Amino acid sequence: MSVVAAFRCQGHHDRMRSHDRASGPRSGLTIDVTTGLTAAARQVESPNCDDRPPGTVVDLVVVHGISLPPGEFGGPSIDALFTNALPADAHPEFAEIAELRVSAHALVRRDGEIVQYVPFHRRAWHAGQSQWEGRSACNDFSIGIELEGTDGTAYESLQYVRLARLIAALARAYPGVTIDRVVGHSDVAPGRKTDPGPAFDWPLLRALLRFESELGGA
Fold this sequence. Notes:
- The protein is of the alpha/beta class.
- Helices cover 25% and strands 15% of the residues.
- The chain has helices spanning 3-16, 77-82, 157-173, 185-188, 202-214, and strands spanning 42-43, 49-50, 60-66, 106-108, 114-116, 123-124, 131-132, 135-136, 142-148, 182-184.
- Residues 11-26 have low confidence and may be disordered.
């Protein structure tokens, strides 16, 4: 999928989804730095968050991959996991994770919908035991964004476009975030985590981020 084709796909989808309007200068996606929320997302409040350590500068974006049940897309299970409402008996895979207390700041679903669970200025519980550039506890200084998918399944082109535009909006809101400080969960927890996996197209995301930056989006 080329950058041009991806943005053509985005343009068609934007005409179909009026909720992605909002007040951004070009992409229609902005972050309210007071609330840490974006009007471009469906809001689902997660209790699994807390305040970052005093004086912390947010300067990293961690990209994750998730599907619940594993390999299946759509449905309410991701929302349920992040709001502590996942029924342990609803699927064999749920018994081990239903008691987890985890969250991400946001999710980009297969159809491009953005769901926000935690205000971006607060600490979501997404990275676990982690380290980046000699700093441990990446939850303290990072923003976690989930993509609905699996390590081995190609992500949708619209997911890359929405992810790039969300990161560009985060860079405008939080100066410590730059388009070159975007990593995978596997980068901050090597050997323990593999997502977003080999199916994730990092060159495409980097190209889209450069496009956003050149147009003044980041």
